[in-house]
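Cross-check.
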Amino acid sequence: MKEIVVISGKGGTGKTSVTASLAVLGGESLVVADCDVDAANLHLLLTPEVQYREDFYSGKEAEINPLICTDCGICADVCHYGAILKPIDTGQWIIDKNLCEGCGYCSHVCPASAITLSSAYSGEWFRSKTRTGGLMVHAELAAGADNSGKLVARVKNEARKSAKEAGADYVLVDGSPGIGCPVISSLSGAAFVILVTEPTKSALHDLRRVYEIVRKFSISAGCVINKADLNPEVENEILGFLQEENIPLLGTIPYDSVFSEAMTAGMTIVEYSRGEITRRVEGIWEQLLREVSSR
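Predicted model, tokenized:
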């Protein structure tokens, strides 16, 4: 079983649309993992039916017991995040959970032991069945939660487990855009990375940045250029970069409004149309399998 991670240096390149199409083409040979937990939307195209769900807790949050608190204010003095407040209407010390970092310093210095630390609710993850019969593991980060990297790791681990139980050949991961912690967590354990980009200066800049991370992990990668015909000059720059870095081009996808029509219909392009775009995506899938099998 091999992990294939789809990432992009910036949002809006079509990363999730490409991932969803490849998931449909792969069918039951793969398990899909939506690791873009900060803005999960792969489910909109694969319409998974949830079979199991579980709350996810990560990090700590502090809480003050007003029955024990002696109103000394030491905790507020030592809190570096300004999370301990005393509202005028209640006159009691409270902890703003949106500001608390769960460091535990306040609990350590409280002379009355009125502050306790508990696990922080960070969201929930799901194991589902897509309409095409494949398995999907996905998650939803709680509002204000900042442990998305750990939730990504949980999604990936559960996807691996599901793939082994189902005897699937691949885990296909829809990673987060950018170069932050969720992306790094998505790349952990990957056998191959698909870099989805578009012919704009900003996309090329971010492609270079995200590939630096992939290279540091020593992971093989291939590239898909979406909306390739919109700017031939920048497309040539991207092709030059790929040649310099010895990154294979998995395929190019020209701009076509049928892509948007498919999304509006809640379908992937390979289900919605049998035109040129679908043939291009099918070619990318076939080239991807050849690249992965040769590693």
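The chain has a mean pLDDT of 92. The radius of gyration is 23 Å. Passed to J.P. for a second look.
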